[in-house]
Amino acid sequence: QVQLVESGGGLVQAGGSLRLSCAASGRTFSRYAMGWFRQAPGKEREFVAVISWNGGRRNYADFVKGRFTISRDNAKNTVYLQMNSLKPEDTAVYYCAADYRPWEDSVGTTPSDYDYWGQGTQVTVSS
């Protein structure tokens, strides 16, 4: 069982930055690929970014490439999402999720790939 707790959301002006954190419980964090998804009101949950168990592979949605960076610290059981050049359309609840893929370079980009989810953190970007 893995519990995930996101933090770092808030209100920011367009062009600003936020860093989201996701702290995981348990001693097997390093066996999971970690992803970030987001969901805006009335829309489907969508993939944002994912990082493999050791950080060797990172994938991003096209709409965040060059603006967002995913990273992880396995010693701290934490995954991060640095978000720069934020736009009003980035407004959503952001969720982190864990996908059990020990020592695999492959990563998943759909919600059904993931085993555990956090409760989400709200990000609001004003214009």
What report would you give on this structure?
With 127 residues, this protein is mainly beta. The protein is built from no helices and eleven strands. The chain has strands at 4-7, 10-13, 18-24, 32-39, 46-51, 58-60, 68-73, 78-83, 92-100, 116-117, 121-126. The N and C termini lie far apart (40 Å). The mean pLDDT is 96.
Q: How much helix, percentage-wise, in residues?
A: under 10%
Head-to-tail CA distance between termini: 40 Å
Provide a count of the helices: 0
Q: What is the oligomer described by this structure?
A: single chain
Counting DSSP E segments of at least 2 residues, the number of strands comes to 11
Largest sheet: 7 strands, mixed
- Sheet/helix structural class: mainly beta
Order of helices and strands: EEEEEEEEEEE
Shape: globular
**Which spans of ≥5 residues are poorly predicted at pLDDT below 50?**
none
As a percent range, the share of strand residues is over 45%
The residue-averaged pLDDT reads 96
Rg calc: 13 Å
Task: Write a compact overview of the structure shown.
The chain starts with a strand and ends with a strand. The protein is built from no helices and eleven strands.
Keywords, please?
127 residues, mainly beta, seven-stranded mixed sheet, four-stranded antiparallel sheet, 11 strands
Topology:
Elements: E1 4-7, E2 10-13, E3 18-24, E4 32-39, E5 46-51, E6 58-60, E7 68-73, E8 78-83, E9 92-100, E10 116-117, E11 121-126
Parallel strand pairs: 2-11
Antiparallel strand pairs: 1-3, 3-8, 4-5, 4-9, 5-6, 7-8, 9-10, 9-11
